[in-house]
Amino acid sequence: METASFVDIRRNPTRTISVGTTRIGSAAPIAVQSMTATRTQDIAATAAQIRALADAGADIVRVAVDSAKDAEALIEISREVDANLAVDLQENYRLASILAPHVAKLRYNPGHLYHHERQRSWQDKVRFLADTAAAHDCALRVGVNCGSVDPEKKSKHAPSDSISPMLESALEHCELLDRIGFTRYCVSLKDSDPDHVIEVNRRFADQRPDVPLHLGVTEAGMPPEGIIKTRIAFEQLISRGIGDTIRVSLTVPNDRKAEEIAAGRRILEDIAAGRVRSVVDYGLQTLNIISCPSCSRVENEAFIELAEQVRDMTRYAQDHDITIAVMGCRVNGPGETDDADLGLWCGPNFVNLKRGPESLGAWSYDEILPKLREELDRLIADRCPAQSRPT
User: Which domains does the chain have, with CATH numbers?
Assistant: First the structure.
């Protein structure tokens, strides 16, 4: 149901931190951000996309860096654009020392810290990142994702409980950062299920109402479904005063990335005006397709077209409680398809097909749709033996 009344939302009393010229926290408007999808080493294309996102109203633009060559490219890009840049550090956290002088924020994933220099404790790695950020006037984001949680945290909880390991990881990192005296950070806790995003962020905000939160539904998918999923989470959280910066993560071609900014602004305006929808119990009895937002780690842009083809091909199964995940790269693809009934993670030339955590093989982009349909039909038949094969 929609209403037309103005809503006076009292936000959680989070501290306010600076990210370049943008402030994040309860003393500032909710910031909107996005992430580049071009290859970072393509300096001209990445700089052009940053400008397009900034022109569309992005307060912060994130760029992924996976290698020293990516870092060199981002340094040059930073000289060519006028935007608040955040660098998305993956497993090579040491690149922070090269990049910090050129960006406004460093984003790291606690789960990815586990994979690099395993002989060094995660606490030492976080101290290095905090010291680097402090020395170069940078903020930090502790970015916790459902598909890449530290294995040690996951092992302490039931496989069905994806929320507790994320929450424990985020709280632990906050405690360490506070203890060493670095408080210029925000936290994100993301999942592809809006209900999980709502639950984990509410639980975190209950325990740490002082910490600014970056909200997002990861792998939200294509519009309009991806916008709807994100809207569900944002309405339930922001209306309760939870959330200081947002990203709408959509699977769209590179030249449409600015749609993420437009969607985020529109959702914020609607919430402020009271134009909200009733609570939706998402994904319980219907087909749910999740797909990651295109980013610079995508190794074949055919991934975006494939996601659209998967959505179209599977419409016949829309009344079945089945989740299909379409992931665009090898960094997040293997882990973030494990919880789906059927998963595709895309490499440069082949698409890997999974049923839950089980790998079924890899096929070319031209061959994968029939294989996916075979597995989808088999899954439907296993769950509904009396039902004939869909046509």
Answer: 17-272 (3.20.20.20), 288-383 (3.30.413.10)
